[in-house]
UniProtKB/TrEMBL annotation:
Pfam families: RVT_2. Keywords: Hydrolase, Metal-binding. This is Retrovirus-related Pol polyprotein from transposon TNT 1-94. GO terms for molecular function: hydrolase activity; metal ion binding; nucleic acid binding. Residues 133-195 are annotated as: Disordered. It comes from Vitis vinifera (Grape). Residues 1-108 form the Integrase catalytic domain. One of its GO terms (biological process) is DNA integration. The lineage of its organism: Eukaryota, Viridiplantae, Streptophyta, Embryophyta, Tracheophyta. It comes from the Eukaryota. Residues 143-167 have a biased composition (Polar residues).
Amino acid sequence: MVQTQFSVKVQVLRSDNGGEYVNHQFREYFQQHGIIHETSCPQTPQQNDIVERKNRHVLETARALLVGAHAPTRFWADAVTTAVHLLNRMPSKVLDFQTPLQALSGYIAVPAILMLPPRVFGQPEHISLATEHHEDDHEAHVTSPSTIPENPTPENDPEVSSFNTNILAPPIGYVLPNRHNRGKPPSRYSPDIEGRRSRYPIANYVSTKKLNEPLKTFVHNISGCHVPTRVEEALGDPKWTQAIKDEMEALMKNKTWNLLPLPEGKKIVGCKWVFSIKHKADGSIERYKARLVAKGYTQTYGIDYQDTFSPVAKLNTVRVLISLATNLNWPLHQFDVKNAFLHGGLEEEVYMDIPPGYSVTTRTNEVCKLQRALYGLKQSPQAWFGRFSLAMKKYGFQQSNADHTLFLKKQQGKVTALIVYVDDMVITGDDIEEISRL
């Protein structure tokens, strides 16, 4: 087909190692026509990523056509053919927003039959059979062409899913609707569509009428709080200013950085303040929280960090732990570690800007050389969890091989289990004394 339609010869064919391509008949055909056959490694579809992705694109489009037209699965082949036809006529970013046919026409002459306008998929065709006049030469002549009406794309049409392909309709005068009218379903479908819509769409309003009093209080307290987005705005409020001071005192006490001149050739990582409000169960304000966060997206792999890992517990592990606690009447305790990432040490040299709003030195070339991990750094979760794991092992806990975030301790016939989700933890077991010590 390629040689006939486009007047070119196939030189190379690339495929996977499927038996439909790798066989004696194909091999002989390639040798006779001088075609090079390239194959990917077995069981490695990623080596044919472009073809695999395009196949998925075609299948997804075909499914969408069938679903949109409410067509039965026996039209699957027609849907795939239509999907390919449409995709060849849609702009592609890879081709500088040209269609594949436009890109193809730049190299070879595209047959005119490929330029036919597309039709709406799933529309029934009414075929007109005119009278056939038989001459002496036994040739049949059709006096009038068939008529193919084209309606808007079917939506919620129960008749579309059961096409009758044997309908022969008489010739009728039919005016094709304008394209700008498509997309508006016929009026006879309106009751069905209206019946499926929600009577009270939440997008139109938000009501607290049916909430109980504690939830109403919680919602009103949250909605009435303003959280600054810039440090200049926060410094104008005494509450946020105190929160910034508390965070800086914690950083200094932890010896998070040292002030040093920036070495030549080193790059600095930026930082910013992130503000939030901690609420109690009733929605009242517990405290104002300010956190200094490094701009980890400016880090360079291999220079500012190596490996990354975040201790996230598996969902199945959490379910099993809660199930055990429920069935065995074990107590469940949940808590988080304050400034957890600040407890992790750094192996790489990371230099950070002076925190916004602070000027601690008169020399302009001094920066913060980080000694501890900081929120926002790529390696911070791994640094924190590495130090935490060592501490738990010193206390006699064993780290699970199935889930590295699960720590178990058995002593005197009693069990203590602790699971970690970043800086949040859940602990349970029947060893009350051990749980109290933790």
